[in-house]
Amino acid sequence: MKKVLIIAGFDPSGGAGVLLDIKVVRALNGYAASVVTSLTVQDTQRVYDLKPIDPHFFEYQLQKVVEDIKPDSVKIGLLGSSEIAVVLLRNLKKYSLKNIVCDPVLKSTSGFEFCKSEFVEFLKYDFFKACDVITPNKNEAELIFDVEIKNFDEDVLSCVQERMKRMGIKSCILKGGHLDGELAEDVLITQNEIYRVSAIKKGLPDEIHGTGCAFSSAFATFLAKGYNMYDALKQTKDFMIGLINASVKIGNGRLVLNP
Ligand SMILES: Nc1ncnc2c1ncn2[C@@H]1O[C@H](COP(=O)(O)OP(=O)(O)OP(=O)(O)O)[C@@H](O)[C@H]1O
Ligand SMILES: Cc1ncc(CO)c(N)n1
């Protein structure tokens, strides 16, 4: 059984964060271990507050779990504080962790700022380099690469690729769930290749919650199983279509995924 280490925040409603991540890994027959970075107050409608875990306690948990379990891949979601990000970066290097997938959770769809601007700079210029792939959505990619993204035309993608090279980012999957149009297209950009996958978009814009968390956890699970990035993306896309088709209304806000 392949082991995925989830490093993410806690959403008590289960629509996002570790509760969802663990269910995704389990649905794909992986084993999920988890170190929580932060607690949030949120429901299916919005995020209200965030409290990061003490960074020393976070590091203590992380080291014990990594030394014992030796994960086959790592999914990084909400970090919660720059102190936690610094500790995590040190340990990603110390333990030479592999198949590191980072979902750069910067701002919630409802507008809650998860990261202050100096924290974003640290992620851009120090943290992302240590990851094998980052998986930004439209808004996150605009912030990270300092480029306006209205569509995934060739010129936009080559601009992102050129900036990735300059910033030392190895691979990036641009997620297109928030772009206009009939298709939900995602693009894997490596240092020398560009590879697209797409599906018919379901439902109304922003109607479903947790798609970003589920996507990165599924991708990390496929990497743990030994798929290369292209095949892992194809598998993840198929898995996401199934999850989105089966999304459910559990509260007064957006639909959630229930793997
Ligand atoms: N309505 C939709 N129909 C089909 N696929 C979708 C839809 N919305 C998102 N996706 C897919 O789900 C995955 C996650 O993409 P998305 O752009 O929604 O990420 P995100 O913005 O990080 O998620 P979240 O809204 O949870 O923050 C991608 O594969 C994307 O193409
Ligand atoms: C804990 C957590 N992680 C990630 C997101 C982004 O969807 C969220 N809303 N909450």
Chart the SSEs and their pairings:
Blueprint: E1 3-10, H1 17-27, E2 31-42, E3 47-52, H2 55-69, E4 73-76, H3 82-94, E5 100-102, H4 117-127, E6 133-134, H5 138-145, H6 154-167, E7 172-175, E8 183-189, E9 194-200, E10 208-209, H7 211-224, H8 229-245, E11 255-256
Helix pairs in contact: 1-7, 2-3, 3-4, 7-8
The chain binds adenosine-5'-triphosphate (ATP) and 4-amino-5-hydroxymethyl-2-methylpyrimidine (HMH).
The site of 4-amino-5-hydroxymethyl-2-methylpyrimidine (HMH) has 15 residues, from strand 1, strand 2 and helix 7.
Keywords:
259 residues; alpha/beta; UDP-N-acetylmuramoyl-L-alanine:D-glutamate ligase; six-stranded mixed beta sheet; three-stranded antiparallel beta sheet; 8 helices; 11 strands; globular; binds adenosine-5'-triphosphate; binds 4-amino-5-hydroxymethyl-2-methylpyrimidine
